[in-house]
Amino acid sequence: MGHDPQPTLSRVVVPKASEALAEQIRNLIVAGTFQPGEMLPTERDLIVETGLSRTTIRDALRILESRGLIVTKPGRAGGSMVTLPGRDSISRSVELFVRTHGIKLSSLLECRVAVEPALARLAALNRTDAQLAEMTQLHEQFVQSIDDVSRYKRINLDWHLAIARASHNEPLMALVEAITTPIREAMDYRDVTTPEIRASAIKSHTKIMEAIRTQDGDAAFNRMNRHVSAYRDISAERLGDNPEPG
């Protein structure tokens, strides 16, 4: 008879005390025990409560600050105040990931195709009158910029971001904000635009705007899907799959 193999032990990784404390405080903030605007216990109190060293306490506070969960002010009148991370902190994290992991341009353009039609649908359903007015104004400027590539590029970006904001979906907004700049910087825009392409984009924007104005979510989704899919295909044809965000 064969013998059962000996059980193997896996390596045990023990978190640093500072990381464990940061996680405890993070959980208390998430649970609402510490509210935004409220001061955390002082360093001295944290030392007494946890039995940890001053260095460990300060390391834990630095971790929390890097995650956007507290703001620490030095000095006698200072301390650590609880905050909540905003959408910009998510955008910065995703953008940093894109820039440091060699994410291909084709992947970013596929991300747009996956996300922006959904944002257009939500914008059609959720937009306010003020947001509609903003998108309409940007669209009018977009139409007038057809012969000015630099202005056309800037207004096009602003219009797409305005649609994202009008969706009122914070996670999707953060994702679009994070990938927009790397996409723009990864490619020579003049290589993927001609007067004919810009005229076609204006027609697409006009149809998308009409769907958003009439709050037709399905039409907004379908028209945005055709628009960003066409841009992805043109970019792939003209630039290939090599450029990566810098």
Describe it:
α5 packs parallel to α9, α6 (129-144) packs antiparallel against α7 and α9 packs antiparallel against α10. The chain has helices spanning 17-31, 43-50, 54-66, 87-100, 105-126, 129-144, 149-167, 170-186, 195-213, 217-239; strands spanning 70-73, 79-82. The radius of gyration is 24 Å and the shape is elongated. The protein is mainly alpha-helical. β1 and β2 form a beta hairpin. Strands 1-2 form a two-stranded antiparallel ribbon. The termini are far apart. The protein is 67% helix and 3% strand. The protein contains 10 helices and 2 strands; from the N terminus they run αααββααααααα.
Question: In summary, what is this structure?
Answer:
The chain is mainly alpha-helical and 246 residues long.
Q: Which regions have little confidence, pLDDT < 50, spanning 5+ residues?
A: 242-246
Figure out the total of helices.
10
For the biggest sheet, the summary is: 2 strands, antiparallel
Task: Give the total of beta strands.
Answer: 2
Query: What's the pLDDT, averaged over the residues?
Result: 86
Strand order of the largest sheet: 1-2
| End-to-end gap | 61 Å
Radius of gyration: 24 Å
The gross shape turns out to be elongated
Q: Give helix and strand order, one letter per element, not per position.
A: HHHEEHHHHHHH
**Strand-pairing-aware structural class:** mainly alpha
